[in-house]
Amino acid sequence: MNFRTGLAVGAGGYLAARSARRTGRRLVARIVARYEKRLERSVRRLTAEAEHGGPLARAALAGARALYEGKSPARALLSAGWTALKETLARLFGGGRRGKLTTIVEQIDVGAPRRLVYDQWTRFQDYPSFMKKVESVEQASEEKLNWKARIFWSTRTWQSTIVEQIPDRHIVWRSKARKGRVDGTVSFHELTPNLTRVLLVLEYRPRGLFERTGNLWRAQGRRVRLELKHFRRHVMTRSLARPGEVEGWRGEIRDGEVVTTP
């Protein structure tokens, strides 16, 4: 094979390869065009169905839109999955801002005199030292408290107002917060001179996503039981060792107003 023949063969091979690449690109373009048309039709159909469909229809729409916008299949799947999760949670939680009311009733027996247990309970500033989730308690007045606690990896703040407080008997409060509220009553019952039963009744109405999710799983009830155990441990290990130093607030509140001061 002389030089000219080899050059011609090489040029022919190059042209054939380039033609094959062009043909391949045209084939891919046609496939992509058909895919895009089907995807566009799917988006229009899902859009119509999602207006009357449930969370799965809206999840499929989110995934189809993600693909249509050029996202990878993996990202599109994540979009669909997250939308399905949000839609399902929204449906379970009722879709409104006001969460479903949950009543929590817990009790615990503390091996200490009722007066000591009551006094320690009213020392709200001590709570962050033995309760795991309470970060701070600021007592703005005898009847108003500002709370800060940790919920998962974020914090929540709320204000509670004591509407009735009778020494050694019970405390009743109402609260307000952006992410829901907890109203409740705690009462103290003498079983023996050195054994006191603490009865706690809470009405919990969640609003935030984490709060509503936790409410669905009854996480708040478990948290209340755990915090009561922390309280009992604190009384049994600290308060009993220095009962003379535990000075609780022994005033009386009725209808949200202080009627008797210590």
TrEMBL record:
Domain Coenzyme Q-binding protein COQ10 START: 110-230
Domain of life, source organism: Bacteria
The protein, known as: SRPBCC family protein
Signal peptide start-end: none
InterPro entries to which the protein is assigned, alphabetical: COQ10_START, ORF3, START-like_dom_sf
UniProt xrefs under PANTHER family: POLYKETIDE CYCLASE/DEHYDRASE AND LIPID TRANSPORT SUPERFAMILY PROTEIN (PTHR33824), POLYKETIDE CYCLASE_DEHYDRASE AND LIPID TRANSPORT SUPERFAMILY PROTEIN (PTHR33824:SF7)
